[in-house]
Amino acid sequence: MNRLQPNFCACGSGLSALRCCQADLQNFASTPSSRHLLPLVDEAISRHANGALKEAEALCLEVLELAPGQGGALAVLYQIRKAEAAMVAAEVLVKRLVSLDPNNIWATQELALLLFGRGHLAEAEGHARNAVRIAPTDPVSHNLMGMILTEMNRPQVGEFHYRRALELLGHRQPILLANLAWNLKNQGKMAESRALYEESVGLDPSILQTLLGWARMEETDRDFARADALLDQAEAMAPGHPSIWLHRAVVRGRTKHYDEALAILDRIALSSSGTGLGTNEMLEKGRLLDKMGRFDEAFEAFSGGKRLNVEQGGPVYMAAHATQLVERLKAYFTSSRLRIVPRATTLENNPKPIFILGFPRSGTTMVEQTLSAHPKVSAGDELTFVSDVADLMPRMLNSPLTYPEALADLWMGDQCEGLNNLRDYYLQRVKQLGIVEPGATRFTDKMPLNETHLGLIALMFPDAPLIHVLRHPLDIVLSVYSNHLTHGFYCANQLETIAQHYVLVMDLVAHYRREMTLKYLAVRYEDIVEDQEPNVRQILAFADLPFDKGCLKFHENKRYARTASYAQVTEQLYDKSRYRYRHYLKHLAPVIPILEPTIARLGYSIDG
Amino acid sequence: MASVAQGQQASLQGGVSRTVDAWLAEAEAHVQSERFDAAEEIVSRVLEAHPAYAPALHQAAILAHRRKQPQMALHWLEKAIVSAPDQPIFHRNICELYRSQGRLEEAVIHGRKAVALAPEDAGAHYNLGVIHYDRMEIDEAIACARHALSLQPDMAAAHFELAEALLLNGVFEEGWREYEWRFDLPNSPSLLPHKGKTLWDGKAMPDGTLLLIGDQGFGDTIQFCRYVSEVAKLCPNLIMACSSEMRPIVAQQNGIVHYADRWEEVPAFDAYCPLSGLPRLFGTDLQSIPAPVPYVHAEASLVAKWRKRLEALIPRGFRTVGIVWAGRPTHGNDLNRSMSLRKLAPLSALEQTVLVSLQMGPAAAQAADYYGRAPLINLGAEIVDFTDTMAILEILDHVVAVDTSIVHLAGAMGRPVSVLLPFAPDWRWLRDRSDSPWYPTVELFRQAFPADWSGPVASVAARLRLATR
Fold it and tell me: Which SUPFAM superfamilies match (chain B) (predicted)?
């Protein structure tokens, strides 16, 4: 009998498409009739364990062509593909395993880890949570939650899971200690972080990643000598490792030794056997060149970094999705409708939010550092809760509609206090994070692009100050382009998409301001840099806070700002970031027509 | 030149041959019937064949004017005047076009030329008078209006123009008399649908029923409803016919026994009187303007509601300044009396001040583009009607507004209000004074030059800055 040449699945699993991605999942369920294949599966497992990967692979493929849902064969083939770095195929296979057996703890943990590694954090979080549900006493599940939530900027929740993992493990596992140390660094708890790194390295001094994390922590805490010493230690362990060099370049950059930093990056490029610098290295190189005044080369590096990111499968701007959301928000939030929408009430004895709004790289971190230097204000950083509320709204309001249309259910007798419930959910999450320090009556939420949900925020917190940080749009676009950011529906990979998203959001803000009564204050980044005190006084007064001199020295605020701006906000106000676009006008030419009307509306001009 | 093309044969459409003037007559008919595209097609074909033919250029200007394209209308009319410099109608028309665009220098030159070329044309004198009013040459405006009336005694527009100029000068007796011509103005809606009713003569009607009609805009109604209680003393059976929007204000006046906002709800009456006719009937002059301020009050429950709302919106210790920068866009003088929010920029530099936008209508959208230093709260988005506005006015520390109904409302409530007036203001604000005998709490800030808001806005800002010290 002639064998038909199978039509291989595009995912790269090695299976035929009809037995892989084109098949109906229901047909995958294992049946008793496939029992005769078990010896083959056992053989594959054994071969795999002995390192005979080709044979193991052939056996798995044979089994899965006959019984596509055979769990053992799927697991072995997944491990083979993962080891080959065929990540798409690996993801398909492990997802199939989880779908066929949602209680498979090993597969669930593997899937969460794989998604985490690929940067799909929200999806990873869902599976990590399942892992905790399935195996609540398994430290691996908690470690996963710790890693994912730390990366998602919810370090307080991450800390909980790391500590639980340590407790369950019953001993001080060095990697777990280093993970917790990194988490604490992200919360600005430098002393605790340092102690844990010391403990981790004391237990196992041979883990490169721990030394790099620690060096980063010291660099963040402005102990550059210590960071250098740690990198020396790492260098002795793994001479010429590109990650060490990159960290070294960052440290040199922060100590303003730009030539040295650049030379290190060039060394990385030469040593990487023709593949050149990665995305982050190229962007770092661009930022160094910018500081050195080599603007054309800097722009070339930014463009190279962004291009590489796209080539390597980095996400692209979800233009249709963004536009559709904005149109729906505009259609819902109209003054005639809002006149009959109830507002949430204010809880008097609760810490109150101050929303710092703005496009990424507009100066929101600086404003948060300024405000949180005030004894009455705690920094909340980038809180995801407004988006969470939007996602949860249909369930919380028992509505068949999604956000924002689900707000129509506020007109129902049993949901008319729904906004109070949404407000309480937000405040409860804030309380859980423990961000409000003793003595503070306010906390900031500076989630970039929260202005997209300005309407919802004003319904939940009608008297919360909304401080919108403005900056020259060309500076914003340039700065977003020179950094790796995922905010704004992944607009950051191209100049044009950054500009498009910026205009889209600013138009939405104008819509909200037209249709709603908002407690809104626009502050310009440039004004704060030029004339700090009156602007800081204005912001504080608008937020009903007495003036505090400490707010003028926000760079001394020991709090670590987690975002890309952290290195800048630890320096005194400086002029160089103002109107930086002037050095890049010819490169920015493609986006000027997109931005020009908004530039004029905001009262800026384009100067050469 | 004009005569060259007259009587020429011009074939503009296949197979049809007519004179150019016949084509232009057809274009004119299309314009009259608002078939603008058809008119445009003819006029452009004529101009293609005869680019300097003055009547065609004039027709093109009329067409552009009717299409609300003033710049284009000026362009054609200027060309027509080059082709036919001594055609009086061209000067008469272009002077009005220049005036409507605020180009008063050019307007007055052509206005004078029109009068010189056609001294018997009452319309030319009237147009020139209007230009003089806009230039605040009030004596000249009065002279022109009188000249027009000497040529055409029943010219309602000239009577009205004369009334406005006299009243602005504080000459009330003759001014009120001339003001009665307002109902005879072209396109003036009829005051009431009833036929054969008697206009009230101001005498007591103890047994008869009097119908008072809120006949003009919101501002006039608020200004003149101060007379209602006095009227009621003469005519106890007093019916008020007024728009529903004005009800919460007018109905506060003593003596109204029935209020109707639809004609079918108006019961039988014996005589009628427009609200704006009351100053004449009461013989009001500069010394006897009744100002029983406050004669309008906010509702206590609404004041409490808005106070709570404003407390949530306004940071503690900030002064609240309500702002209104534009009136109803369909108002005849809106170009002069309204401004853009950007022109209020000096107010945004005030320390410890929140600007509270009470702006309604299309201009309210400008609040979205405000990025000044002082915070701006767009309260207009939550205002439903005048009851809300009254409550808010009761709470705000100060109001700055152009000449719109909000000024009258704040004035009638006795609230402090700074009024930004155009160079040639409405007659009720009189001349050369910063106070108003109609409203004691009003302060007037006048343009020193036409269309230049910088002076009065800076003065208001300086006044408010002083007040904080």
Answer: TPR-like, UDP-Glycosyltransferase/glycogen phosphorylase
